[in-house]
Amino acid sequence: MKRYVFYLIIVNMLWYSISAGHKVLLDLREQGSLLSIVLSPLFGFMFLIGWIHFFQTIPGKDLPDQLLKYFPKWLTRTILGIISIMWFFAGLISLISFVFTLKRFLTPETPAIFITIIFLTFITFGILLRTKSILYTIEIVLLITFPFLILLILKALTSSEFELDFVKEAVMHINHFPSFSAIANSFYVYLGVSNLIIFNNQFQQHDFTFKWKDYLIAVLLCLGTLFVSFFIPIGLLGYENIDTIPYPMMTASDTLRMPLGIIERVLYIALTVSIFTTFLSILVHWHVVVQIAKKLIMTKKNIHQPINWLLGLIIGTFWIISIYLINVINEYQLITFSKLFNNMLPFFFFTMILLFQYLKRRAR
Amino acid sequence: MQTKKKKTTSQTNLIDLLAEKLEPSFDIINQKLQTDNITVHLLYLKTVVDNDQIQNYIIKPFFEMGSIQLFDSYIASLPQNNKIETNEKVLSQLSRGSVLVQIQEQNYLLDLKKITTNLVLETNIEPSIQGPELGLSEDIQTNLNIIRHRYHNISLKIETHQIGTSNNQTLAILYDQENVNDSVLKNLQEKVKNLKHSVILSSSELQRLLNDKKWTFMPIMMITERSDRVIQNIAGGKVVLILDGTPNAIIAPSVFFDFMTSMDDKYLPFGVSKFLKVLRYFGLFICLLLPGVYVAVTSYNPEVLRSELAFSVAGSRVGVPFPSFIEVLFLLVFMELLTEASIRLPRAVSGTATTVGGLILGTAATEAALTSNIMVIIVSAVAIATFAIPINEMSFAIRIVRYVLLFFGTTAGITGLILSFLAFVLYLTNLESFGEPYLKLFVQRKKVETKGVKS
Amino acid sequence: MNKRFRFVHFLFILFLSISFLSGCSFRDIDNRAFVLAIAVDDSGDTKKPYKVTIKVVIPSGNIKQEGVKYAFFSEKGVSISEALALIRATIDKDIDFSHTKIIIVSKSLLDRNLGNVTDFFHRRRDIQLVSWIGIAEKRAKDILKMEPKSQSSVTTPLFNFFSRTAVQSPYITPMYLFDFRRQQIETGIDPVLPIIKIDKKEKRCVIHRALVIGDGKYVELTPQQTMIYNILRGNIERFNAEIKEKNGKFKYGVFIDSTSIYYKINRENSKQPIINYKIRHQGILEESSKYTESNLLKEYGKETSKIAKKMILELLTYFQKQNVDPLGFGLRYKATNLHTGDTYKEWESLYPQAKFTLDINVNIISTGKME
């Protein structure tokens, strides 16, 4: 079952490679992006150990269970409230930025609000299902997309248009000291495992032991993603030109051609894969929110109703906020906002690790 | 003497009592065999018992044997001898072809039924290339016989139940005690006991009644006519239900991948069967996605196609009065009708019907510019792909789901198509067949996998 | 009963609603006018400087028999988008750029800043980044309208020239839209665009020259220079080379079928960088004016190398003299030196002093089918 933990990491990783995070990293390439990528395994490793170690001590339980056990109710509610808001925004940013991507690349004439509603409909269907079935779905979808991913990466790297000089030029900028934003954005890729706060209740003790080899694989996967999402757009679109491109990964995939394929433009394969991964990413994030909400509601009287009005209210809020924001926000604001959000993440997650340490001590 | 004699106070008049209960039927025989000093009564229904057997096993020996004691012990040691419990049981046994023999004060129930349906049928729904050609018969005894003969293991248990409050059909539950999933077994036994229907005729009806949810279209129990599939599933720890009078067995629990395996996978060489499997899944995707992809691509994103292909699609659509989704729907519905018609029609005609429908309708529709010729190609590809799914129930289900995907492909283009496909996967993974996840990949060994999951 | 009825109702409404829901952006493929190529000309009008011509494919029901027909539309405008908006009003279908493969800009427009011309093509999402861009020597429109004798392709004839799936000529310099953009924005490399000329008499396109677009200046290359540029840039690996005698008489021809090119910027002398080229060719003799002897193959190779060396050095110094850098020496310099100061500024001052050394070796391995 260990592999399901990897799937959580991979979903986040794949989403990262088309998110605003890597765009920010590309923008900051003269402010130490590369160095922060190289250094990021350090933080990533710390983070992975901090989280996985904690959750290994409580097999079959999730964070809300643990908090309810050791903390007073008001504190639990506050902490869980903050967590669910963070997770909600993570999903929301994925949703909005991907709707923009779709509007730009796939269906420019469809109103953004319509794409949002379609997404929300299916996400609402998905997040209310059992946690386990989401894990199974991730596995199946990753299996389907895997050959396409390999194709995309191979196609990009073997393309005659992939100019090694641009990559080398980027490497020559390794001597810049990384800015905080660069570090925070490269840290984002490691965060997939954080969804364990809910998904951990699906794993029992004996099947979820991370050994050093697994940590190494996880860190290498994430590092690989960072390198791929940093160098492929630069190699294909040029080092200085990358500034002018709002969706580097998508645009980079449009520079590839399969002259002998059924589909000539690789962009459409990339888009299909990214619809899959984005949907999963939003699904995972919002499922966590829904499950936390369920746990909070369950402490009250109405346990027997699986979907009660409070849950309906929460999902209604998802709808309203998403539909409202999709109308008012523009691409620039979104990038600024997600930059801000990503900058906040390291603080948030390392505070969580402290919280875990405290919980561990209490449990002893 | 091994068989127990059941003594009741009303024993002397048991035959009369039963005869009275059975009375208005024309086929009731209440016979008295008599020699000098011995009298033996027989009671049976003429239409269900085997007259030859009565002649051979009862009447002949009766007149050949001198003493009543000898005849008594002879009857008692016959293998057809059954226990007598209550009067109701005896009655129902009589209706199944037993003969009640009364010798002095003792009653024996001999099972001498005549079976006219024990012919083992050829498999025609799930034919295979190299597997056994004969499937199950319509008689439960024969079926159990077949299965016992191919599964020589003491741990194979057969329980029988009577279901249907009116027609009291026999239902056998078969499982291998050693590796059966106990929770599934208990669940099924309970469900069978709680069946309140008066008449249950076929295994597919039974299967529907065993399913809790009303609006399901994915099958969660498999109906098969192949005895080798039954054996394989019993060995794999599944529960098999066989209803008397139907040549099909029900296998539960059944998950998605079970419906995608053909028995030939076991018989063909490894590489070949893997290739066929890949082909089958390819067919599944074609059948699910192709109509939706056609609409989404031609009406929202023609740039996905190669230029040459896009122009020829555009060219073939010149003059077609309908939008693409009507075109697809139109042809798909006609194709469904054709499939349906060729099932219902007599064999001799169905070939002609398909040819007339498929070829002539297709060509004429293109000629009349009602559809584009590329559309005809696509729909026939879809139709062929549908038949690549080995189990019928699954292909019915996929045929329905395809329209849902087509709907979303029409309303929201590629995005809608992919998302609805994802939702379909989510639906499947959320589905359970008697506690087993319906769609789940098993990468490790099954025991390791199931251990880690809370159910 | 009621429940079942409700379900049937639901299904009915579901299918009815398709026809309403699909209203937005649902457009059938036969209602789209696919643009194959765009030509941008200088209209001569100062107020409306752009004249845009598009080549639209008209799908026919029977491509195999009738072939493909095209229609042309052109309009003037302040900007390309305005001109296109005007064209949009003249076609009964929706203009769809998603299959546009060729963009041609006339040379006279180059006096305006070309960056602004191509901006529209970069910005629009439905124009492929893998479409080719070229320069028309005179009027771009004429090139679009020209239908060569040998045409059989469904797409536009120029497609076969650029895609290298059919034509492989060392004189053609294909340039993708995105490649043009990245080379244009990047300092240290200058894009080179093919120049397309029309041979009116013969009804054919001639593409054998190229234009280097430097910083605000254009350097036109001769066919021979274009060929050498393509070889050095790695655009082509297989080509023919003709060796002439001193009096200009043809001596023999060599067909090169594999090429490896490698260069390094040597900075040992901090004032004067040395650009070291290492070129290895392998090929066969293709045509000769007299009998050849196989033991002389080495001699032929040496002779060819010598001639090639002279030509390549000429071109390199020509680029240096013109202060353009289509081969990306500046980029290579940036890519091999740690970014401590402004590396490109350093290079700008170093480039005019740079020296070229050439290590070329042509290996002729066969005399062909006969000796």
From TrEMBL, chain A:
The keyword Membrane applies. The chain crosses the membrane at residues 5-22, 34-54, 74-100, 112-129, 136-157, 177-203, 215-239, 266-288, 309-329, 341-359. Coiled coil: none annotated. Keywords: Germination, Membrane, Transmembrane, Transmembrane helix, Transport. InterPro entries: Spore_GerAB. It is a multi-pass membrane protein. GO terms for cellular component: membrane. Its main location: membrane. Belongs to the amino acid-polyamine-organocation (APC) superfamily. Spore germination protein (SGP) (TC 2.A.3.9) family. This is Putative membrane protein.
UniProtKB/TrEMBL annotation, chain B:
It is a multi-pass membrane protein. GO terms for cellular component: plasma membrane. The chain crosses the membrane at residues 278-300, 320-338, 345-364, 370-391, 403-428. It is found in: Cell membrane; Membrane. GO terms for biological process: spore germination. Coiled coil: none annotated. Keywords: Membrane, Transmembrane, Transmembrane helix. Pfam families: GerA (PF03323). Its main location: membrane. It comes from the Bacteria. Belongs to the GerABKA family. This is Spore germination protein BA. It comes from Caldibacillus thermoamylovorans.
Automatic annotation (TrEMBL), chain C:
It is a lipid-anchor. It is found in: Membrane. Residues 27-198 form the Spore germination protein N-terminal domain. One of its GO terms (biological process) is spore germination. Keywords: Germination, Lipoprotein, Membrane, Palmitate, Signal. Residues 211-368 form the Spore germination GerAC-like C-terminal domain. GO terms for cellular component: membrane. Belongs to the GerABKC lipoprotein family. PANTHER family: SPORE GERMINATION PROTEIN B3. NCBIfam families: spore_ger_x_C. This is Putative membrane protein.
